[in-house]
Amino acid sequence: MKWMSKRFTLVFIPDASQSVRRYSVSASLLVLIPAFFILMTVCAALFIYLYTDNQDAIGRLAGHITASQEQHAEELSTKNNQIAALESDLAVLAEQAREIQNKMNDIAELEAQLKDIAGIESSEVQISSALTMESGGQGGEEFPLSKLDDEQLAEQTMQNFSALAQLMEELKPSLESTMEAMLQYQHIQDITPSIWPADSRKITSTFGIRRDPFTRRTSLHSGLDLGGSRGDPIYAAADGVITLSENTYPQGNNIIIDHGRGIKTRYLHLNKRLVEVGDTVTKGQQIGELGNTGRSTGPHLHYEVFVNDTNVNPMPYLKEDREERE
């Protein structure tokens, strides 16, 4: 400690022309100055070490952050692409749903037309939508959809829609063909004389060989006689065109209807004719009144059927009443 209290003199001799300079320095100062420089050097080294280590840590952290950002950006891009794909699939599904709805409407219209042609009453069936939650009991076992992700579900739905659309594409021509066949059948039914031409079912003379009521000789009766009252309505037995409407003897007021396919019907002894040559008539339409004109013993309708201009028995054609078609 005594040494620390000593003082030392430092002598500086610049050169011979200048005076000598002396500095008195205590021993403690001589110790503190080097110690200070040593301490500063150690602090500087420690600072440099810590700074370098921190820079490395910051660099590693920045690298991790950059990698995490890139990963998140990649995941976000993948999700965005998946969302875009799903949106595109949903747009396609919406378009397919619209097309299927239009096709279903077409099929429903065809079905209604077929039922109308066939005379079937349309029954209204109320189908509850799966998207509409009605009040009441609910239940059933539930199964998770873990095996199907959104893309698979959308793809499967699209495939189902495509298969359904293809089925309806094949079904529509079939229905159209069926409707065309039914229309053809209905047309044949309409032009076939299958209804009774009068309200009366009183047969006063059948088709075939009989004794003539005037001459009492055996002769061929070319039609079917239906008894009734004067003025009773007489109906067209089928759709057709009036080719004859006149008053002659012995037929009296008589009408001929051409139904096509070589089939004609004739109505004799009418009290009144309500149609003229060239008129188009429909099955069950009134064309005249029952009467007693021409060669007749009393009010009746003489009804004839021609096939290729040959008289045939009308009885096999009389299958339904006019009211059954209304």
Residue ranges: pLDDT <50 for 5 or more in a row? 124-134
SSE-based structural type? alpha+beta
**Overall helicity:** 40-55%
Identify the CATH class of one domain.
Answer: Mainly Beta
Description:
Helix content is 42%, strand content 24%. β1 and β2 form a beta hairpin. Among the domains are: 83 residues; 123 residues, Glucose Permease (Domain IIA), CATH 2.70.70. The protein has 326 residues and is an alpha+beta fold. The chain contains 3 helices and 14 strands. About 3% of the residues have low confidence.
Short note summarizing the structure:
By secondary structure, this protein is α+β, with helices and mostly antiparallel strands.
Annotate the secondary structure layout.
Blueprint: H1 2-5, E1 7-12, E2 21-26, H2 27-118, H3 150-191, E3 203-205, E4 208-211, E5 218-221, E6 224-227, E7 233-235, E8 240-248, E9 252-260, E10 263-273, E11 280-281, E12 286-290, E13 300-307, E14 310-312
Antiparallel strand pairs: 1-2, 3-6, 4-5, 6-13, 7-12, 8-9, 8-11, 9-10, 10-12, 10-13, 13-14
Key descriptive features of the protein:
single chain; 326 residues; alpha+beta; 10-stranded antiparallel β-sheet; two-stranded antiparallel ribbon; 3 helices; Dup_hybrid_motif; metalloendopeptidase activity; Cell_wall_metabolism_enzyme; M23ase_b-sheet_dom
